[in-house]
Amino acid sequence: MENGPHLWTPLIKSNPVSRISKNRAWHKIHPRQGIIPDHKLKAWYRAVSSLQHQAARDFLLFVLLTGMRFGETRQLKWSFVDFENKILNVPRELTKCDREHRLPLSDFLLGLLKRRYVFANNSQWVFPSVRNSYNCISSGSGLVRRVRAKSGIKFSMQDLRRTFLTMGEKLEVPPYVLKQLVNHSVDDITGQYLVLDIERLRQHMSLITDGFLKLLNVEDGEVIDCHLPGECDFAEVTQLRITFEEDLLPV
Question: Is pLDDT above 60 for 161?
Answer without folding.
Answer: yes
